[in-house]
Amino acid sequence: MFLEDKKIDINCDLGEIDPSLVLERSIMPLIGRCNIAAGGHAGNPEIIRETIFLALNHGVDIGAHPSFPDRKNFGRVKMDIEDDELMESIKRQLSLFLDEVENCGATIDHIKAHGALYHYLNENIPAAEKYLSLVEALIPEVKILAPEQSQICELIDAYPMEIIYEAFADRRYNKDKTLQSRSISGSVIYDPIQVVDQMDSLIHKGGLLIDNEFIKLKANSFCVHSDTENAIEIISAINEHFQWNK
What we know:
38% of the residues lie in helices and 19% in strands. The protein is α/β, with parallel strands linked by helices and 246 residues long. The strands form 3 sheets. A 7-stranded parallel beta barrel has the order 3-4-5-6-7-8-11. It is globular and about 45 Å long.
């Protein structure tokens, strides 16, 4: 199965919730791209290192997953800090991650912001500019995962990094292409059949039917959250339906 002349790309946020990495060992063979927590909302050097080794063993593209420095709220709440302080934290996270990538003899493929940082950068032009400038200074050859409606995508032409348009396989969308709040019942999709149906619509129709209106949505990579309770079942169903082998 192909999407814009490329095989379907499944990405997953890892190194977040299971220090034993049992979950990572089950998920890694089923995906093409992993986003590894860089120490902001979760993770530490040892977990980063072991997750990188797992990715190398399974031929999975390695990505950094920086966030607001907020373990208490798992990086899912916007912190009241200045952008310069936030960028310093992201710089520390990415520097830590790059050190571990080098120690493992690996290569960083991409970056994907986590949680509240992901949404903040999508909506805030000054913060997005500072973020892109920081990434350019550290890793100008890296790819960046972001949704097509984000400020990141609006600004990216001025920078050397490549964009990968991301959509979420296990989350419901609003008409403005933002994700439904997790506080809304049904915003997280747990049924593998419904996840496959949503991906099928994005791949073959180029968008989703939301409240009886078709909304176009571009996607090159599809995220399944590892903390979705049946993530392995969902990713397995995606692989089976689309006959995808990485």
